[in-house]
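Friendly challenge for the regulars: who can give me the structure tokens for this chain first? No prize, just bragging rights.
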Amino acid sequence: METSAATGAPGMFGHRQRSVKRKRWGGLRQQWKLLGLFEIDEQHEFYSLTCMMKEGLAAAIQSTIDNPAPTDLSDEDFRLELTKIHKNFTMETFAGPVFASFRGSLGMTEQEYQQSLCSENCYLQFISNSKSKADFFLTNDKRFFLKTQNKREIKFLLSNLKIYMEHLKKYPHSLLVKFLGVHRIWIPRSQKKYFIVMQSVFYPDDRINARYDIKGCEVSRWTEPTPEGSQIIVVLKDLNFEGQFITLDRQRSWLLQQMEIDTDFLCRLNVLDYSLLLAHQPLHHDERHQGLSFASLIVRTKKSVYSGSSPVDASAAAVPGAVLEDGTSLPLSESHNGLKLTQAEDTLSSSSSQACPEHAGSGCEMAELPDFKAQNRRLLPNLKNPLHIIDGPEQRYFIGIIDIFTVYSFKKRLEHMWKRLRHPRRSFSTVSPQTYCVRLCQWVQDHTK
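First reply, four minutes later:
Bragging rights claimed.
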């Protein structure tokens, strides 16, 4: 009887074998406790979900292609919820015109965005050692991250979306991660899933030879590196970086000040536990030791950003130091504190004041304008992700601040008290927003030169 069953159904036996192998493989992936990228093919548990996400995103982005975002966003645009019903699910898009306008300010067309998110190529699953229960997906070209979030985190983001956008408009070279869309997908007989789309800090990732997640503390901040030659992607932590430096030379002062600006903004939002993502790769030989000649300025400031005007506006440079449409550049000269104005002062003053019209009488007082203009002026590599990239003399660094949703709540205050007892005289992540801000800035100052 048993022999008959085994020999009479070889297909079923083979299917069971493959099923067992898949389970073993899935188990091995969990046992590794390492980070890695896995293609979400038809056998993957998230294949159905990601196919629905693609279909929903394609329709949502098509709406912004057919109905471009208005030049002047209203309060209603920030509260807008667009619902589209599909065959097997429903997709909701939050503040669609706001994010479409922001994507345009980054020099990204809606067609380009749609192609990357909705191509026939499979998404990649990013296996993370994050304590959160979020699922991480990457587009196949690794340009955009999709991350599931809980309702509380989404509510926090949407309630602070306006001041987040105002911050990026005032400081277009901010290190904060660029959120590009917020959505909710509902599948019948299943829970609603919220997810965000954001620009990957580590793009393009070819030749990156080390990745770090920095919080500026020491408790639980070590990750076992992979053996040399391993293809597994591991994001290392603070203690792994000890003894190393981010070598930037002339751009160091810019980074230190931008860190202070961005972390002060997060402190005012009363958040903590965010991370500074850091990666590096060696520069090609012809990219090294470039002087700040007029010619190199044209090459290295080819792409710049200013929310509120087209990145390819031929009438004026969007951000001080940007290259104009005809290939000419606004002349700049180097100084101790960064790039200062020369004969283009009037043009740059106009551009910078446009970047902060609503703050002209407060945050952008005349005494602060020189620093404000200098901070919005830096050399950008000619890449699709230039805002998160800073070139040093020998290395190219990818830098960005992520995970900005953890509010310093009563629960976090209790956690802080518990960790003080558990880890006396050691630094840990759960501290007040002000302490967290100062400590992370100090870490950057101590590890740059």
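The first strand starts at residue 36 and ends at 39. DSSP finds 15 helices and 17 strands in the chain. Your move, everyone else.
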